[in-house]
Every structure is written in C-alpha cells, then in structure tokens.
Amino acid sequence: MAAGLLVVVPLLLVAVVAVVVLVLLAGATVGSADLLETTARARRHAVRGSVLAVVAAAVVAAVGPSALANLHKGAPHAAFAAIPALAGLAHLAVLALTERTWPHPSGPVRSARLAPRGLACVTPPGLARALTATAAALTVTVVVAVVLADPAGRSISVGDRQHGSSAGPFPGLPYGLPALVAVAVLLAASVLVLRLVVARPAVEGADAATDSALRRAGAHRVLRGALAATLLTTGPLLFFAGTAAQGVHDGWVGAAAVVVAAAGALAALAGLLALTLPAPRVPAPQPGAPLAVGRS
Amino acid sequence: MTLQIQVDVGSAVPPYEQVRAQLAGHVASGRLCAGDRLPTVRTLAADLGIAVGTVTRAYRELESQGLVTSRRRTGTVVHGAVPSGSDPGLGAAAAALGGRARAAGLGDERVVALVRAALLAPATAGG
Fold first, then answer.
1. pLDDT reading at A289 higher than 60
2. By CA distance, what is A199's nearest residue in B?
3. What is the pTM of this model?
4. Chain A contacts of B5, Cβ < 8 Å?
5. Which of A175, A276, B27, B93 is placed for a possible disulfide with A171 were both Cys, Cβ 3.0 to 4.6 Å?
6. Residues A155, A157, A160, A165: is their CA dihedral positive or negative?
7. Distance between first and last Cα of chain B
C-alpha cells in the first residue's frame, strides 16, 4: 500500500499543481488593462510568488515521501504525517520572500496614508476560522488517537495478546506528534508572514481600496496554503484512525469509525480544493480616490 | 477622507522634519484629534520608502512637543493640539492663508518663508 501511495501521491500532486497554476495565471491576466502600471506590476509580482510557492510546496510533497522511504526501508516513517505541513512551510517561505521583495516607492515625492493597519484589516475571516477549526480538529484527533493507541503508538488493539485483534497504521504518538508540532510551526509562521503582508510598502499611485485589496489577496494566499496543509495533515490521520478502528471494532463503534474515515477522506479532498480558492480581485482605480502612496 | 503626508526626498528639508511638520500641522488643524492612532513607525517608513530611524525621530520630536504619546501596547496616539493662544481667530487666519497659498500655486516652503518673514517684521520694527 505504501508503494502504491508513493506512485499515486506524486501523480495527484502534479495534477493539482497544474490546475492551481492555471487558475492563478488566469486570475493574473484578467482585467490587468484597467489597472495602473504600478498596480499591475505589483499584482504580477504577487502572482509570480504565488505560483512559485505552490511549485515549492509540490516539490517538498513529492520528494519528501520517497526521501523518507529511502531512509527507512520497510515500515512507513512516522514523519510522513508531517510532510503536508512541511510543504506548507515551503509555500510560506516563498510567500515571505515575495512580500520582502515587494516593489518599494522610488520616486522623489512619496506619500503615505495616516490610517493605521493591522492583521484584522487584511485577514480573511472565513479562512482564519476554517484554519482555527481544522487545527483544533487535528489536536483533538491526535489526543484521542494517542489515548486509544497501543503502547508503541502505531496500531490499535482490542482484547489481549492471544485472543484480541490489532490494526494499523494508527496515528498514535509517533505519527501524531510530528504532525502536531509541524502544524504548530506552520501556524506560527503564517502569523509572521501575515505581519509581513501588513507591513510591506503600499503600491505607488494605488488608491486605498486597491492597496487594501492587494493586501487581502496576499493574506488570502498565506491562509489558503496553511489551511490546505492543515487539512491534508488532519484528513489522512482521521482516515487511518477510522480505518484501523473499523478493523478491530464491530457494531456502532465500527460504524462510527467508518464515519471518521470518510470524514478524513473528505478533509483531505477539501485540502486539495482549498488550493484553488481564488484570491480577492483587485478593483479598477476609482477616479479621485485617495492615493495609498507616492507620486513622482 | 484618509489623511496623507508627503515626503520629498530631494528637498533641502530633512525627511524627519517634513514628517514632523506635516503631522504637527494635521494635529494643529484638528484633522488629527486626540485619541487618533498613527501608523506604526515601520509601516510609515515602508510606505514612504525612508529609514525607520527617520520616522522614529519625527515621532520622538512630536512626543517631546506633547502632540503624541507612544506606548508599547497602543502604539503612537495623538495627545491633542498644543493651545495656540488666546486668539481663536488665529487658526482661521492660518487656514485662509493656506487656502490662498494653494490657490496661488505656492509650495509649502515658500508659504513657511512668508510666515517667517511676517513674524520677523514686528521685531525689526520694534528693535
């Protein structure tokens, strides 16, 4: 099964990355003619960073499993569960670089709005809530799985050694802890990159609405990647937990385990779909609207 | 309407003084009121494309004038305008001067030079 996954997962990744890149590039080309040159350039910079971020995440996700398989021949390595979050970190690293290299004001006369801005102004509330809920679900999944797992933490058993049954893989401590730690690091890094989105310079000549839309789009990309990585961590853990539990339990417990496994599969699918959530559009500039920054 | 400030990096006036003078002007005119929060030093420096230390110096001078207060939690907040004296018509006269100067196409430095010249005149006459 592990060998099959090593073939299927990279193929699935290539398909998802191709779709995401096409969606991002399509979004970048629509309506550019209505934007100021500086705004269009900034948006191209953002889209280029977004595409590179998805590619970086895909490379980590594709290379990670085979690298770990080469390191640990035989049983799947426990750090497999952390690969989606590691891919998410690669995604964030490229987005952070994009924000750090954002075009700076260069004209002799520059202006700035005196409105303070913070995380609340740019963070999409729906994505933030979904990310918080998914992280909470992951924590609950790992805690429950650690309690139910065998002492070794890789399977679940019912009854004693002679007459009982055992099933795995089960996300006990060896799988759950790396996943939980990696997602915690991912969430902390997401907040740091959101701060970069807030602090980066406003686009020269852009009005306040355009600047705000560009920042919201940047924050959307950050949270979209983090949500996808967290869902792709939580989903497989739920799926394997449910599948293993269904193998050793009958009756209503077994039925509940099937529901858990199905929820895990749906969460993983939602993680892939989250990557295609379109970022907010940048509006055409309004005549007479206040500038966000600089004219020369 | 969103307030703005401008910095001309080619001007003879240092950028920190340009920032300080414009913020002080907004406070004196009442466009920035007590309790209004200013952007963080880093945000303003990034938007203007100038060094963080430049904005820090401008904010520090405003704080020493009693126009703003900086706290770790709340950031930099407008404290209120320094009283301009007993003549309430001064503000209106300054606003009228500003309006006429803009209408005549005069730059900030030229207007300030005119005001300085007007302030020097009584002293010269008296001395």
1. no
2. B43
3. 0.79
4. 111-112, 114
5. A175
6. negative
7. 46
